[in-house]
Amino acid sequence: MRDRGIGGRYWLKKAARAGVGAASPLFLRPSARRALRVLTYHRFGEIPRDAFCLPADVFERQVRWIAERGIGVSLDAVCDHLKTGAGLPDGAVLVTIDDGHLSTYSQARPILEAHAVPAVAFVTSELVGQGDLGGRMPEPYMSWDQVGRLEESGIAVGSHAANHRSVGLLPVDEAWEEIDLSRRRLEERAGTAVRSFAYPFGTRIDSTPAAARLVEQAGYDCAFTSQHGPVTRELDPYRLPRVKIESGDGDWHFRRACRGAMDAWRLVDGLMWRLQQDRTETFAGENRSTVT
User: Fold this and answer.
1) The pTM is what?
2) Residue 53 near residue 47, CB atoms below 8 Å
3) Residue 125's domain spans which residues?
4) What are the pLDDT digits (tens) for 229-266?
5) CB 168 within 8 A of CB 125
């Protein structure tokens, strides 16, 4: 019964995403289609009905499509755009990968490198080198050596907090530790500058204005949520939206998502915000990252 319930929710969500992807481009202005969007991935492999585990061949087709159109941009280019208005290609996309799982290195990295598409890997610093946490996570995490070699393939390293806890729900001192420790540990162990932060879970309750100010004080240049929408210079650079890319959506859906088809999913994000206001802070071991 449990498997059927999970499968039912998966297909219900796929149907909802397909409906939004098919209908919303009809209402997008041309300028919205040309805006910058930040794509969110999590893991890569073959796990049926796991929306956050994208088959490598599907990822390769997506990255090749980005490369052929010359719209893949780096984190540095995005930061420059936000600060100075430096130009980006029409319809530019920044590829980001959350959590720091092994498949980021073993499967995504060679594809990105082969097509010369830059990306950002948001790594949870205190989980580097860990296994699957006793079966609570679907795959192990990268080692420090692997994290340190990402930059060679054009993949910047960003912080996904120290222990994948919601910085918006923690007391200030604990939130600061999650934000500041993760940056210092990543820079020391990986030997690379860490300019960006991605909020664990990334809902509005996880990325509050108070949490954003802590991220700014810690010295990051920008931070990303899991809320959907385009990135514009008018937004708070420490609460930037992204667009989740999931398995099972089809190539047509991906291409439309890059042009704004999933921006309307922010309505679902808003509904989740209302449902989550009474939620208590939860550790990543419970695998909330497969839900947000």
Assistant:
1) 0.91
2) yes
3) 35-290
4) 999 999 999 999 999 999 999 999 999 999 999 998 88
5) no
**Pairing assessment for the beta strands 119-123 and 155-159 based on DSSP bridges:** parallel
Number of domains forming the structure of the chain: 1
User: Within 10 Å of residue 114's Cβ, how many Cβ atoms?
Assistant: 13
In a domain, 30, yes or no: no
In a domain, 231, yes or no: yes
Question: CA 207, 172, 179 angle in degrees (round to 5)?
Answer: 60
Encode pLDDT of 51-90 as tens digits: 999 999 999 999 999 999 999 999 999 999 999 999 999 9
CATH code, 179: 3.20.20.370
Using CA atoms, how far residue 176 sits from 190, 217, 225, 236, 270, in Å, is 21, 9, 17, 19, 26
In this structure, the chain runs to a length of: 292
Name the token pair of 209.
């204005």
Cβ proximity of 122 and 95 under 8 Å: no
Residue 18 lies in a domain: no
Cα angle value 254/256/262 (rounded, 5°): 90
Burial of 37 (0-12, 13-18, 19+ CB in 10 A): buried
Q: Is residue 99 part of a domain?
A: yes
Cα–Cα distance between 95 and 76 in angstroms, integer? 13
